[in-house]
Design a protein that fits this description.
This protein has 99 residues and is of the alpha+beta class. It has one domain: TusA-like domain (Translation Initiation Factor IF3, 2-Layer Sandwich), CATH 3.30.110.40. Strands 1-2-4-3 form a 4-stranded mixed sheet, covered by helices on one side. It contains 2 helices and 4 strands. It starts with 26 loop residues before the first strand and ends with a strand.
């Protein structure tokens, strides 16, 4: 028999991992330890480090960053591709520069 063990019975499906990135971030902005509005200011300041269509990653541990990054992307016309919030902190936001 091939293919490994059968999938778990209903309701016991393991937690799904975040999807793999299709491409790596071209720049990383580390704003951990900085509070609002500094993570967004740093993201905006370094956006020019990547070409249109490329990804930039923001590392932030400010609780306001999740809402701030999403709102900033909407207002500035960029795409929030992924947000990862590991239980131990140090959140990661992957943003695609669209213009």
């Amino acid at each position: 028999m091939t293919g490994g063990p059968p999938p778990p019975a209903g309701g016991t499906e393991p937690a799904r991992a975040e999807p793999a990135r299709a491409e790596p971030a071209r720049a990383v902005v580390d704003a951990r330890g900085r509070r609002c509005p500094i993570p967004i200011i740093e993201l905006a300041r370094h956006l020019g480090d990547v070409e249109v269509g490329q990804l930039i990653e923001l590392l932030a541990d400010d609780p306001a960053a999740a809402a701030d990054v999403a709102a900033w992307c909407r207002m500035r016309g960029h795409e929030l591709v992924a947000a990862q919030h590991p239980p131990l902190g140090g959140d990661s936001y992957l943003v695609r520069r669209c213009r």
